[in-house]
Amino acid sequence: MAAKNILVTGGVGYIGSHTVLQLLQQGFRVVVIDNLINSSEVAIQRVVELAGDNGNNLSFHQIDLRDREALRKVFSFTKFDAVIHFAGLKAVGESVQKPLLYYNNNLIGTITLLEVMADHGCKNLVFSSSATVYGWPKQVPCTEEFSLSAANPYGRTKLVIEDICRDIQKTDSEWKIILLRYFNPVGAHPSGFIGEDPRGIPNNLMPFIQQVAVGRRPFLTVFGTDYNTKDGTGVRDYIHIEDLADGHIAALQKLIEDPSIGCEVYNLGTGKGTSVLEMVTAFEKASGKKIPLIMDGRRSGDAEIVYASMKKAERELNWRAKFGIDEMCRDQWNWASKNPWGYGSPDSQS
Ligand code: NAD
Ligand code: UDP
């Protein structure tokens, strides 16, 4: 069977780069488009190296998704079997400060992509949604049927895009769409050659812990110690980035093999909740570094406990996460210790 052609938007970013590597390793041909607004081209060079001979099956175009003509050109050169759509801005705090930037980039980018896909007869899509659409869940584990809400413009872009996908599929049954709701991706490729490299001050827990461990920041602020949880700190469902990438391959297989998939949504998590302090302890064990802590109040908008029900993905995608928090911290530390300044240098960071 001829190799499948997959377009990956945002494929230079954290989740994209790990997924692109797995796609190449599994024999897919991959075209990546990314405007590099939140990523470094070094990541894609490293993916090519890690992929060995399969690295020849990757091509990269520095394109903004909203550039319709550039996008059309990419579609006119290759007939894609499916698109995995990661590209988007993702910083919650920034989305509150700059809502129009987020609506413009994430919504117009996605609508342009969907229009160009339809024009070229490519109607198979995997989209990066987020557990953020569960808001502050009334109960856990979160199942895909829960009611949805958004606490900020970033979350609203995910909700709107999910709705757009459901709408277009309803009126045109040729569309096959899988919406993946990620929980908290952490860790790095076991080689330590690619990993997460956020610009500026990290918003998320693990990149922040990592920067404390390598001496770039003096302490971690723990947001909230009075939650109704085992130790008072917030609980999340952390998932190893390799498992998450693997979940995309499972979704892609389902999309290609199931003619009646329609528009389906799946959680990608582990189904287990871990507190902030448990994560800090696991990281200290993996790295041998002490993480100084400052206990502070709750961060506005944060939920208390969020973790996934994995029943649907296990049943229908035949997929489940393999790694636990010890492996997540081991691989995060391996990446951090080999690349304390990410893909850049001390001069290129704030
Ligand atoms: P990332 O920022 O590392 O990757 C996103 C990539 O998209 C970047 O390389 C960026 O340069 C690119 N991009 C942004 N806007 C673009 C545009 N208009 N045109 C072309 N490229 C553009 O983020 P990530 O962590 O890899 O996340 C990927 C996707 O998964 C995002 O949609 C994000 O919202 C979603 N998601 C992430 C998490 C998480 O915790 N990392 C959780 C849930 C959902
Ligand atoms: N958190 C923290 N200090 C930080 C960043 C995050 O205590 O510097 C906590 C946060 O309050 C939450 C958990 O770590 O309970 C995970 O936060 P993250 O932003 O990584 O994920 P999200 O809240 O979006 O699920």
Compose a concise summary of this entry.
The protein contains eleven helices and 13 strands. The chain is of the alpha/beta class. It binds nicotinamide-adenine-dinucleotide and uridine-5'-diphosphate.
Could you characterize the architecture of this molecule?
This protein has eleven helices and 13 strands. The longest helix is centred in the N-terminal third of the chain and has 21 residues. It has a seven-stranded parallel β-sheet, with helices on both faces. It has a two-stranded parallel ribbon with strand order 7-10. The protein has a domain of 212 residues: NAD(P)-binding Rossmann-like Domain (Rossmann fold, 3-Layer(aba) Sandwich). The radius of gyration is 19 Å and the shape is globular. Helix 1 links the parallel strand 1 and strand 2. Helix 1 crosses helix 8. With 350 residues, it is an alpha/beta fold. The mean pLDDT is 97. Its EC number is 5.1.3.-. Pathway: Carbohydrate metabolism; galactose metabolism. It comes from Apostasia shenzhenica. It catalyses: UDP-alpha-D-glucose = UDP-alpha-D-galactose. InterPro entries: NAD(P)-bd_dom, NAD(P)-bd_dom_sf, UDP_G4E.
Task: Summarize this structure as a short list of keywords or feature phrases.
Rossmann fold, NAD, NAD(P)-bd_dom, single chain, EC 5.1.3.-, UDP-glucose 4-epimerase, carbohydrate metabolism, 350 residues, binds uridine-5'-diphosphate
